[in-house]
């Protein structure tokens, strides 16, 4: 049996899957101040009557990291940055930044020694200012982390209790500002996330649940909960990832669809192209910061089933507005304000809550407009659907700039937008048809769509990335995620200077297989694919002195084999 739990802004959904099919579901209200309590209530509800020994896998999709960042509850972090020559520190907007002298070049060769006196002076300043967490990031630290390691040693010597995050461990990709942002957020949320994981493990032990436990990541893949402690920031946006994988699981293989996940507080948008979720090439964006967190190309808009419906007077007359605020559940569910859910209940498009209270809520809006209740309910639904449709059209302008989307268009041999709109979430049944009609698309509301996020969490398979850099002239290679520089003499490759791309890619596959084994996900290693492979000649004195290989590999997002696809 498999369990998937998704902690949303309004409800926490859970699903129990048995023999590849949905066996039971549960929904509880999310307590924003105590996500763990909501999560465990949903777990207890969905697994009631099931022996812990029967459980084979438990996956959580959580907003812990996202909420910490959005609510400003992260820990203070001192950033020790080594930008090297050619970078103006004043162009950065990172708070609590300290700049150090030293530099590596793009191949990882030291071109400026680390100024250790400067480092020690800076550490003293950090201690005086009360920092207990530090992120150390050098511009080409992923090519040679020696300076980052040395600074960590000095921190350990001078400030033993300090928590240190190294940039090359957080991200192996180029782009210094994004690596800084990712490292900063990883450090700022790490301790709180570690506490959250410890509480989950304790709660599962109390329930005698010994099944493997995973966390859903922003790229739609799962990560063993123990390993997720090392990469907490990768769990941001796991909610939109869950809805995307849920849509993938609940629709026929190979479909191309816009995914619209309508929750109580927000609506999340994503895109599936020929059965593959679209990944953001620039990484996840948090506030003003672009990061190196691999994530689906998604957007959240502040409109949902429980958004407040108001009537406002404007220069052009009386106008209905939807959201962005939410003041609790819909009026028909015991709330205090009229909402789109009340309108859907009046029109008979959903079967939730008290129909009389729904009529009362819509009547209060209708009286201000001077319109009948049913007409007002239809107008509210139309406005809500129009807001979602507008957001989808705006999102397409971003999606069309993604390399993967352009490749998909080339393969289609014509410029064509997806024909399906797949509805996920509690508000899908009432709104998706209206949204799809405005987009001139086919509405699809799969069976179990109301718990599609939880299904997505339950059936998502692990993902893993690896970035390999080979320098045949220096006779070394490095895996950015591991931070080690290894001699090519340790490999089976013979003549380094005549190395071909095929040999570099074979080494990357071997190394990813080893990495997958360390992560406990070896069974998916053979499904790894190359996402980028480049080779450059090193020319000195008109002759080729060596070659540089950059190979990126990934185990892509997908579904575990235990899941049986639902029929639409």
From TrEMBL:
<dbReference type="InterPro" id="IPR043129">
    <property type="entry name" value="ATPase_NBD"/>
</dbReference>
<dbReference type="InterPro" id="IPR045079">
    <property type="entry name" value="Oxoprolinase-like"/>
</dbReference>
<dbReference type="Pfam" id="PF05378">
    <property type="entry name" value="Hydant_A_N"/>
</dbReference>
<feature type="domain" description="Hydantoinase/oxoprolinase N-terminal">
    <location>
        <begin position="3"/>
        <end position="158"/>
    </location>
</feature>
<dbReference type="GO" id="GO:0017168">
    <property type="term" value="F:5-oxoprolinase (ATP-hydrolyzing) activity"/>
</dbReference>
<dbReference type="Pfam" id="PF01968">
    <property type="entry name" value="Hydantoinase_A"/>
</dbReference>
<dbReference type="InterPro" id="IPR008040">
    <property type="entry name" value="Hydant_A_N"/>
</dbReference>
<protein>
    <submittedName>
        <fullName>Hydantoinase/oxoprolinase</fullName>
    </submittedName>
</protein>
<dbReference type="InterPro" id="IPR002821">
    <property type="entry name" value="Hydantoinase_A"/>
</dbReference>
<feature type="domain" description="Hydantoinase A/oxoprolinase">
    <location>
        <begin position="179"/>
        <end position="463"/>
    </location>
</feature>
<dbReference type="GO" id="GO:0006749">
    <property type="term" value="P:glutathione metabolic process"/>
</dbReference>
<dbReference type="GO" id="GO:0005829">
    <property type="term" value="C:cytosol"/>
</dbReference>
């Amino acid at each position: 049996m498999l369990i998937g739990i998704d902690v949303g802004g309004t409800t926490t959904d859970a699903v129990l899957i048995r023999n590849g099919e949905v066996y039971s579901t549960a929904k509880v209200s999310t307590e924003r101040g105590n996500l763990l309590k909501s999560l465990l209530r949903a777990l207890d509800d969905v697994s009631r009557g099931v022996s812990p020994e029967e459980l084979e896998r438990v996956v959580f999709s959580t907003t812990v990291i996202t909420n910490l960042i959005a609510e400003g509850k992260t820990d203070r972090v001192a950033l020790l940055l080594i930008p090297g020559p050619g970078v103006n520190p004043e162009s950065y907007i990172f708070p609590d930044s300290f700049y150090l002298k030293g530099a590596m070049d793009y191949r990882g060769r030291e071109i400026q020694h680390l100024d250790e006196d400067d480092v020690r002076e800076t550490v003293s300043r950090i201690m005086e200012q009360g920092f207990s967490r530090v992120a150390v990031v050098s511009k080409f630290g992923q090519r040679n982390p020696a300076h980052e390691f040395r600074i960590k040693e000095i921190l350990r010597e001078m400030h033993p209790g300090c928590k240190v995050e190294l940039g090359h461990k957080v991200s192996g990709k180029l782009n210094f500002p994004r690596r800084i942002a990712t490292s900063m957020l990883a450090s700022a949320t790490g301790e709180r996330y570690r506490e959250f994981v410890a509480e989950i493990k304790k709660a599962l032990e109390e329930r005698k649940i010994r099944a493997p436990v995973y966390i859903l990541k922003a790229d739609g893949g799962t990560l063993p909960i123990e390993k997720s402690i090392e990469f907490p920031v990768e769990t941001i946006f796991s909610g939109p990832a869950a809805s995307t994988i849920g849509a993938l699981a609940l629709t026929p293989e190979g479909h191309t669809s816009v995914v619209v996940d309508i929750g109580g507080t927000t609506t999340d948008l994503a895109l599936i192209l020929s059965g593959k979720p679209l990944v953001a090439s620039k990484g996840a964006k948090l506030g003003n910061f672009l990061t190196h967190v691999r994530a689906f190309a998604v957007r959240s808009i502040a409109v949902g089933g429980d958004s407040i419906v108001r009537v406002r007077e404007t220069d052009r007359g009386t106008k209905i507005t939807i959201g962005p605020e939410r003041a609790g559940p819909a009026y028909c569910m015991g709330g205090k304000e009229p909402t789109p859910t009340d309108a859907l209940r009046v029109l008979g498009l959903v079967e939730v809550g008290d129909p009389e209270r729904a009529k009362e809520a819509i009547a209060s809006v209708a009286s201000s407009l001077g319109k009948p209740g049913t007409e007002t309910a239809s107008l509210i639904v139309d406005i809500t659907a129009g807001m979602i449709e507008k957001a989808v059209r705006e999102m397409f302008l971003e999606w069309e700039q993604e390399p993967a989307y352009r490749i998909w268009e080339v393969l289609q041999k014509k410029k064509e937008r997806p024909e399906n709109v797949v509805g996920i979430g509690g508000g899908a049944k009432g709104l998706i048809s209206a949204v799809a009609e405005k987009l001139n698309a086919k509405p699809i509301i799969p069976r179990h769509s109301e718990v599609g996020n939880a299904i997505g969490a339950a059936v998502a398979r692990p993902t893993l990335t690896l970035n390999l850099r080979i320098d045949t002239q220096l006779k070394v290679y490095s895996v950015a995620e591991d931070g080690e520089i290894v001699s090519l003499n340790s490999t089976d490759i013979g003549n380094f200077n005549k190395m071909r791309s095929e040999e570099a890619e074979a080494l990357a596959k071997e190394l990813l297989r080893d990495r997958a084994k360390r992560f406990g996900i070896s069974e998916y290693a053979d499904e790894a694919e190359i996402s980028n492979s480049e080779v450059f000649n090193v020319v000195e004195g008109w002759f080729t002195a060596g070659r540089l290989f950059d190979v990126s590999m990934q185990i892509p997002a997908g579904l575990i084999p235990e899941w049986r696809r639902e029929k639409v």
